[in-house]
Amino acid sequence: MTDLFTEADVVATVTRLTRARLYQFVQSDLVRPQRDAGGYVFRRIDIARLELLCDLSQDLDLDETGLGIVISLVDQLHAARQELAAVARAIDALPADLQARLRAELKRL
Predict the structure, then answer these.
(1) Angle between the N-to-C axes of helices 64-92 and 44-54, in degrees from 0 to 180, rounded to the nearest 10
(2) CA diameter of the chain
(3) Are 31 and 53 spatial neighbours (Cβ–Cβ below 8 Å)?
(4) Rounded CA gap, 107 and 109, in Å?
(5) Beta-bridge mates of residue 4
(6) 3-state class of 3 per DSSP?
(7) DSSP 8-class letter at 63
(8) How much is the pLDDT for 2?
(9) Over the stretch 54-108, which tens digit does the pLDDT of each residue have?
(10) Which of 59, 71, 94, 102 is most buried, taking the most CB atoms under 10 A from its CB?
(11) Is 95 helix (H, G, I), strand (E, B) or coil?
(12) CA separation for the pair 109, 103 (Å, rounded)
C-alpha cells in the first residue's frame, strides 16, 4: 500500500472531486501537496482533507472564504491537540508525587 498518490489517484479516490476542483483547492492553498516532475503528489492526509473540503463545499455550500475559515479552525484544533498530547507525555514523565500535585491543582481550576 502506497502512501503517495498522483492527481489521477486522488480524483479516482475522492469520488466527488474533479480535477478542476482539485486544482482550485491547491491554488487556494486549502491543500498543500508535494510536487515532483510529474505534477502534484498527495499524501493520505491530503486525501482526508480533500474529502472534508468536498463535504464542506458541496453539502454545506461553503465558498472559498468559508472553506478557508473552517480549514484554519480545523488546523488550529489539530495543533492544540498535538500540544496537549505533548504536555500529557511530559507530565507522565514526571515523578509520581509531582504528577499527583499537578492533578490536584488541575482539579482546582
Answers:
(1) 130
(2) 58
(3) yes
(4) 5
(5) 43
(6) coil
(7) -
(8) 66
(9) 999 999 999 999 999 999 999 999 999 999 999 999 999 999 999 999 989 989 9
(10) 71
(11) coil
(12) 10
Residues in the chain: 109
Contact 66, 56 (CB under 8 A): yes
Residue type, 87: V
Decide: 52 and 44 in contact? Cβ < 8 Å: no
CB 82 within 8 A of CB 40: no
The pTM for the full model equals 0.79
DSSP helix/strand/coil, 39: strand
Give Cα 109 to chain centroid, integer Å.
31
The yes-or-no verdict on residue 46 having pLDDT over 70 is yes
- Return the C-alpha cell found at 70: 473552517
